[in-house]
Amino acid sequence: MTLDLNTVRADFAAFLAGNASRRHSLDAALMHVVEAAYQKGLNDALQVPAVLRDAIPNLVTGVAAGNGSALGVELAAVAAAGISEDAGGAGQGGGTEGGNTAPASHPMKGGALAALAGRWCNDSGFQTWLSDKWPEVWARHDPHTGDVPNNEVAGKVLRELLAVKTRAELDHNADAGGRFNHLIRWPYAEHLRGTP
After folding, report:
1. pLDDT tens column, 102-122
2. Domain parsing of the chain, residue ranges
């Protein structure tokens, strides 16, 4: 999908027309096109161009044979980790090859969605909403002993619902970010506005 101003305008108008009777429909339409633009940018950023994808196996092979510098080893490990994650692999770039040490996988850093999820998990109103919305999931993580603070339970519930190991994945995995928006962010925003 090409993202140009005419496409965004048409999408905005279609969403607004389709939801004209909803309260805050202008805000919802704006959020809709901003989310679409964000997802397009995120998807574009996560895609490795074919030219690089074809060159990386050769780079890794050359480095393993001792034909690369330490910087080449690090570049190869990081690039290979990104490609193996795209292919569903573990994404580990570590190990030693040819006497050089390649770094282990780099930890993801959370962005805006991870920060929002963290703030909400610490909010008692969000904790109540989450436990009311998904009582079975909440009950699995809340032993009712008082030993586990509600913010930790909320974090565990979110990670289970969104199928992520860390909140940082919300900003690095388009599917996880989409699940967060559809299951948590938008419904909770509607709840805060007092709309069903």
Report:
1. 344 557 788 889 999 999 999
2. 5-46, 50-102, 112-193
